[in-house]
Amino acid sequence: MLKRVRVIMQSERFGVAARLFEDMIDGVSEADEYVAAMFSPVPDEQGNVEEPEHMEMFCDGRLRLTDDTFSLSYEESELTGMEGTSSQLSFLLSQPDLVTMLRSGSVSTALVFEPNQRHFCTYRTPYMPFEVCVHTLKVDNRLTSEGTLDLDYIIEIRGAEAERCRMHLEIKQ
User: Fold this and answer.
1) CB-hemisphere CA count at 13 Å for 66?
2) Residue 31 — left, alpha, or beta (φ > 0 → left; ψ -120 to 50 → alpha)?
3) 112 strand-pairing partners
4) End-to-end Cα spacing for the chain
5) Contact at 8 Å (CB) between 141 and 96?
6) Strand 69-75's sheet: what is its strand order?
7) SS3 of 152, please?
8) pLDDT (tens digit, 9 = 90+) per residue, 44-79?
9) Cα 6 to the chain's mean position, in Å?
10) pLDDT in tens, 92-129
11) Cα 149 from Cα 136, distance rounded (Å)
12) Beta carbons within 8 Å of 173's beta carbon, 6+ residues apart
């Protein structure tokens, strides 16, 4: 089954002190510090914490549902900085907590969101490729029942500050 839907995406992001490319830390106290860094915004030189950056996007999408797979495709907009890019969210119906986002066009990548797991990928841009690490904190996938998906994750481009991102996606008929 293939049908057209309206996609509503809201997100917020802010810088955090996590370093995802470093080895996972052993030991309880060090691990607690690592987790605290993942959740805490990074203060500036004066100790002030910036407000999270919010974004809201509306677009048309294509929902494809088979016996075992859910797939949602949509075109990125100028607002996301990825104009000319197609994005596709997909998952196996038997594994709704393992969500893949494929992007192709002006930028391309394959991001994997799996609770409490780190996944590495390459993010290709017109300028140069970047190595990216995604550590997913939460996947609340209700796309098949309520039409919503909530992702909470930390993303780091090697050599740049990590960001915590929260994304809420909703599909409407």
Assistant:
1) 6
2) alpha
3) 100
4) 14
5) yes
6) 109-113, 99-105, 85-92, 69-75, 53-65, 2-16, 162-172, 148-157, 129-142, 117-124
7) strand
8) 666 666 777 898 999 999 999 999 999 999 998 776
9) 19
10) 999 999 999 999 998 899 999 999 899 999 989 888 89
11) 13
12) 3, 5, 6
Residues forming a β-bridge with 103: 87, 109
Which residue carries 């797939």 as its tokens?
71
pLDDT value for 161: 79
CB 124 within 8 A of CB 152: no
The residue with tokens 């939460």 is 138
Task: Please give the model's pTM, rounded to 2 decimal places.
Answer: 0.83
38, two tokens: 């993942």
Q: How much is the pLDDT for 26?
A: 44
Q: Side chain identity at 123, as an amino acid letter?
A: Y
